[in-house]
Amino acid sequence: MMDPNSGTPIIILKDVGSETMLPIWVGAYEANAIALEIEKIAPPRPMTHDLLRNLLHELGAQLVRVVIADLRESTFYAYLELRRGEETLFVDARPSDALALSLRTKAPIFVDNLVLESAKSVDVSSDQVDRERLQRWLESLDPDDLGYKM
Fold first, then answer.
1. Terminal CA-CA length for the chain
2. pTM across the whole model
3. How many Å apart are CA 143 and CA 71, to the nearest integer?
4. In CATH, what number does 10-145 get?
5. For a designed S-S bond to 102, which of 23, 59, 107, 131 qualifies (C-beta 3.0 to 4.6 A apart)?
């Protein structure tokens, strides 16, 4: 969705085990790459994240998972956990790029508990969640507390 104050794209991550949500502000290009994959729209030529997926495949590597691992000075940090044969690799990545790649490879996304504690996340019951309530919650947030850094 779009930040109602700045017009900047926001990715909302929701915990599968609860109703906790974590907003992460992303750039327009990354938001577009994520949206294309969610909508299953295939561009005529591979985009950057498609290229990365293709490279992993050709090199015999698999994206095991994406981890949003840290929040420092209003910036989220993530890494890719890759496996190639018996070898496991950890590659630093921007969360937006990591999310776009995870969607293309069907890899799970994890958020470290310390990140959830550091960021202002929200816990709402599913029967009360609607777009208007989420919009009001987002409007009340200070982007500096949530990892917004352009």
1. 17
2. 0.78
3. 13
4. 3.10.690.10
5. 107
